[in-house]
Amino acid sequence: MYQLTKVNKKFPGVHALKNVDFFIGRGEIVGLVGENGAGKSTLMKIIYGAHQPDTGTIEIDGKTIRFQNSRQAMDYGIGMLFQEQSLITNLTVMENIFLGFELQFSNFGVINWKSMAKAAQYQLKKVNLNIDPSTVTSRLSFAQRQLVELAKVLTLEERIDGDLVILLDEPTSVLAQEEVQLLFELVRQLTNRVSFIFVSHRLDEVLELSDRIYVMKDGEVVDTVKGDKADIDDIQRKMVGRDIDKEYYREYRQKSYDQSKKLVSFNAVSVAEQFYDISFDLRAGEVVSFVGTEGSGREAILRTVFGLNNPTGGQFLVKDSPYSTGTVREAVQRGIGYVPRERKVEGIVNGMNVYENMTLSQLSSYSNKGILRVGEEKRLAENWVEKLSIKTPSVEKDCGGLSGGNQQKVVLAKWRSGGSDVILLDHPTRGLDIGAKEDVYEMVRDMCEDGAGIILVADTLEEAIGLSHTIYVLKDGRFQKCFDGSTGDKPSLYDLVHYMI
């Protein structure tokens, strides 16, 4: 149905794709895996028409095609569900679904909103989403917005004659497990008229959903395996070119923390409708994890520590002093740094380069009467680029152009270079490949050895268990159980899940 043959793509200094062959048949779900920088994004952009290959051919139903842009690809039934979502949140659901195609509801320049709502309802029914199409998109949950994105792509069915090919770019990265399963069930239902390309760093999900899996490394397809025959360890080995370290979470570097030095203390702290009567201490050199299902209150605790939520009860201390105003400014001044789940939205500033992002929270230290000392900013950034092995051609590179793992390192460098000794990590490895995850785990151990304390909401329970000294299980905004995570005495997955549900 859709086939690429001997596709090559080069950028300055990078051979992104090397003689790539790729095929997806009618009604197939094809997985695409590889480390960051393996070529997945470039391949997807060529399939979607955002890039054009230097050499090689693209065929749809035996016809050679060369897209000049994404709009042309859409005319052939190629759609994409973006990881960071492309919806405009201050528009309604129906306005988002038909964005750019409103003329079909226009009569002498006046939009027939009733007609648009009816058409939107039809599209929403395709994805089993029962909501009012006039709802402002910002009011929806992430999972609901994901389904609206899919409904938007499925409008192509009414505009083209053939079947669709939809690219799913990390669609499950911030979904709860039950939401993931609902999405997978919907994808399987749609394969009678849609083919899917599923890109994810969660290999267990790729194996569960995919009929075939393409494995990429350094711009090449190194293997193609059937989903029901695939083995996670084997795929990981092919992705990175080596066996994964048995000490994946660097447990051998986990040291005892300083019992005498409290960095953060919650004493029966509550935030209305989010969590209640939470008490814990974070000490120097300690990793404290909060685990629970989506909405359990774990992320809300992190945002409260960073001043984004104001407590409605209890006492909150930072280094034994009351945390009076509960603002982000005070949090930063007290040495608290926050690495958010949505790093492209809240972590970095696209359009600003590496050194500007690193010094953003400490500009007063690099200015004199309002004039920035750019040379000092660059020297600081160059030092941290070397220290954290950040892959960037220079510190003047736009941070938005770095891989996810390197963006995460820039965010961590921003806080550590400013002296932050309380680091809040909200899904720090979300969307990162295996090698980049290992780099983050090394940084966690490095920060602990430097005397920092870390509060972690992990991407997986295994990650929480592997990294943490102390693990708190939350359910419905309340602590259910506290586990000691000392090396050799860590809880099992069952231990945590038992108290989560």
Write a structural description.
- It is a single chain.
- This protein is of the alpha/beta class and 501 residues long.
- The protein contains 17 helices and 24 strands.
- A hairpin with a 2-residue loop joins strand 16 and strand 17 (321-322).
- Helix 4 (113-126) crosses helix 5.
- The two termini are 44 Å apart.
List the helices and strands and how they pair.
Elements: E1 2-11, E2 14-24, E3 29-34, H1 40-48, E4 55-60, E5 63-65, H2 70-75, E6 78-81, H3 93-97, E7 106-107, E8 110-111, H4 113-126, H5 142-154, E9 164-169, H6 177-190, E10 194-199, H7 203-209, E11 212-217, E12 220-226, H8 232-240, E13 262-271, E14 275-283, E15 287-291, H9 298-305, E16 313-318, E17 321-322, H10 328-333, E18 336-339, H11 343-347, H12 354-358, E19 367-368, E20 371-372, H13 374-387, H14 404-417, E21 422-426, H15 434-449, E22 453-457, H16 461-467, E23 470-475, E24 478-484, H17 493-500
Parallel strand pairs: 3-10, 3-11, 6-9, 9-10, 15-22, 15-23, 18-21, 21-22
Antiparallel strand pairs: 1-2, 1-4, 4-5, 7-8, 11-12, 13-14, 13-16, 16-17, 19-20, 23-24
Helix pairs in contact: 4-5, 14-15
Secondary-structure arrangement, i.e. CATH architecture of the largest domain: 3-Layer(aba) Sandwich
Write down the overall geometry. globular
Q: Assign the CATH topology of the largest domain.
A: Rossmann fold
Low-confidence stretches: none
Number of domains: 2
Instruction: Please give the largest β-sheet.
Output: 6 strands, mixed
Q: What is the distance, rounded to the nearest whole angstrom, between the alpha carbons of the first and last residues? A: 44 Å
Structural class: alpha/beta
Helix content: 25-40%
> Which strands sit side by side, in order, in the main sheet?
6-9-10-3-11-12
Mean pLDDT: 87
- Which CATH class of the largest domain? Alpha Beta
Q: Could you give the count of β-strands?
A: 24
At the fourth level of CATH, the homologous superfamily of the largest domain is P-loop containing nucleotide triphosphate hydrolases
Number of helices: 17
Sheet-strand content, in percent, reads 25-35%
